[in-house]
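Reply to dn_fold:

You asked what the input looked like. This is it:
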Amino acid sequence: MGLRVSGPKCRGRGEGPHHVPYGAEAENQDALRRSGSRQGVRAGVDGEPRGGERRWVGYSPMRIPRTLSFYVLRELGQYAGLGLLAVGSVMLSQRVLRELNDMAGIGIGLGDTLQLLTYLLAMLASYAIPIAFLFGILVAIGRMSSDSEITAMRALGVSLGQLVVPVSIVAVVVSIATGLLLSVVEPKARRDLRGFLGDVASRGGIIEAGAFNELDTTGQRLLFVDERTDGNELLGVLISDRTDPTKPFTVVANRGRFDFEKEDASAHIRLFDGDIHFEGQDAGDERYQRISFAEFEYAFDLSSLVKPGWDRIRPREMTNGQIGAVLDEWDLIGKAPENVRVKTRERYDIQLHRRLALPVAPLLFALVGIPLGLQRSRGARSWGVLLCVGLVFVYYTLLSAGEYIAEEGMLPAAASMWLPNLVFAAVAVLLLYRARHAEI
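and this is what came back:
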């Protein structure tokens, strides 16, 4: 089986018109592979191309090898892991600081803090994982491109489409995981967090024996307890209330009990055998009263932390089935069901389509990130970080704009919540088209 070369006939001593000297075939093949030339020379087998199809000498159609696929996935995985650690830490720290600042008003211990972290991690994972995936693509592909590894792959016959395949497989997995997190894990975590806040408030974590406890953020209400029993009974209770400057008073009681009312999100301290001391506005004021009581109830508001009606869940805390049931009942009776907390239909539509649209983001991140990562840059890692921040900012800004448009009734949620996906899909098509033609 020889190599037939079109063009001028090559004849040597004793050679036929189509004979190639020994070793010339390998030399020609190697030369063409090194030069990347596709001009004027075509190869056939037994003088005829297979199936009438013509191939260039040096052309090597191939699938991306398994080892090479694993290498790309390993690079993507390690940078995505670093991105998840960084993004998760930033998002979690911001949320934890805000929650702890609010929960200081109802009292929280170390064990409660750890439990709070688990709820917040579950709530934030659906956002952190796609962002980390995008970061991994940009940095991994950018690093491989800057080190000329992508060029070497192309020299071996690996096309852009073949490079997209292993990344797309990971993108599908990330999309499925994001969908499960949004539809199942996040709603449950939000419900559990609301119940957790109610439990902390109901057990009176705000009350610490032997110290003055602030019952509000302004410090106008102070509570002191000598001792607190395992049965949640308070011994030696003193309450100082300065919320009304014209009527300051102090309550002293032998014992008391703390209760939390779920309906109005208020705390109640039931006091027994004590006195109420009404003081004047200044030291010379003679308006002083003392009232003894056998039983007295002191109440203060916790609605800033545990909203009234906290046991009625919001759209973000509902499963897809619950949201669908609310919308069906809404359509049936023509108004909001009585047992729901949010009375705006658009909020339920927004939440439903948000859970359908966001899982598509990892797929679009992959299609946008690969051609952007192929742009060679010396500072591939720093460039990847900046590019990731910019793309994430644009995507979630468009998502927020879509929510606003739906809430204002400008467009239905089925259209507005898909706005960022449509924009990124258009950008992905343009970038892939340019990258595909750049390699020809």
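Residues 66-200+339-438 form one domain.
Hope that clears it up.
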